[in-house]
User: Fold this.
Amino acid sequence: MTNWLPDLSVGTGPIYVRLANQIEAAIDEGKLPPGAKLPPQRNIAFDLGLTVGTISRAYALVHERGLVSGEVGRGTYVLDRAERVAAAEADPVTTALSGTRVQNAEPDKLRFDSASAPDVGQADAVADITAAIIQAHPWEIASYTRNFPLSWSEAGVRWFSRSGFSPLPEQVVPTIGAHAAIVAILSVVTVPGDKVAFEPLTYSQISRAAGLTGRRCVMVESDEDGLIPEDFERVCAQQHPKLIFLMPNVQNPTLSMLPVERREKIAEIARRYGVWIIEDDLYGTLIADPPPPISAFAPERTFMVSGLSKSVAAGVRGGWVSCPPAYAPRVRIAHKMMTGGLPFLLAEVTARLVLSGEAERLMQLTIDELAARERLARASFSGHEFRSRPGIPFLWLKLPEPWLSGTFKKAAQDDNVLIDDEDEFKAGRCGTAQPHVRISFSSPSNRETVLRGFQKLACLLESGQAGYARLVG
Assistant:
């Protein structure tokens, strides 16, 4: 046990905060090394002439900062750096916000938990375009973005225009990717306390963002074809959501495609109950001849979102929102307030990629590469039940007995393969009849690595009871 005592005459603010800051400073300076035991709360309270409650608040604060661990009966100990990282990742609040993925993966892990576009030579195209922009626009590079050239919105129009749908340029807002676009829309059409509807399994970072900003999440049932309109109407009548988030084309993670008749029904139900719609079409660009979007059936209340991350280059972070009439200015302002503003270089690179045809060329290379990897998946997991689509960067695997989703994920991680369990995609508490995992295959640099990862996972599946027993035994 250390005899260290803080000097509370240093610093400002409440005493418990000053004490917590002193503890943190002592840890940083090595006065409280890893493994050191902090003085018992009653002892330090007596020595400093403070109440135990004040000491308890200070200890709780440094615990929240991930600097110490404490157990009843053992005391409070200083963590080393590796322990701090592990404690932060295991913290319930951190986990609730970040999901179940490993945040800092070791270099030897095969990342089958990312669905961004594969490397098909994007760097060369982006380098050429970036060099040309820097040469032509030195002032804009040095300054904040003050103007929004029409070409940025025209690029969005070109990207959105398919299946008979084509927004007007004044309806399209360029954004820092799809996620930032969706959060901006949430801030425009909902306020804290409003309910936002989600499918039980979905891109759950949106539900986490909604919860973080005070919105309440409600679930609408879905099946193998996607959202069930009848349950959507039930939720609208009983729960009165202000907004629903949907992925009609290639739903993440289930790969369902919402039939046209359901799209029409959902649009009508949303209109009847005054519900706004966010239509996430990030994966829709990767499929040929998609059905008409929900935006075509309810243009007055649907915000359609897309971008380059899944089909061209995630690192560019280019995206757009197609807004209902008169809502584009509000979304643009909200996007600036939420993100700090759209960087000129990002928006100009994105627009030139699309308007030059480079984005379409790179997207076709992406689709071809993903189709080849999907064929490897079908061969590797033959005999198992899963859903996949050519050109889509992941599959949805139904696990055989005795595997549970989290257990299989842990076993795969022990074999140096990172995948996603069901919990990563749950928008809220829900149950599933049969555990699944999502296996993404766009991140590895080549097909040989993809195949090696598939083979590891296939062997794990085939091991059945023996593999499960090895993990839980």
Q: What stands out?
A: Residues 398 and 433 are 10 Å apart (CA to CA). The domain at 110-115+360-472 is CATH 3.90.1150.10 (Aspartate Aminotransferase, domain 1). Residues 468-473 have pLDDT under 50 and may be disordered.
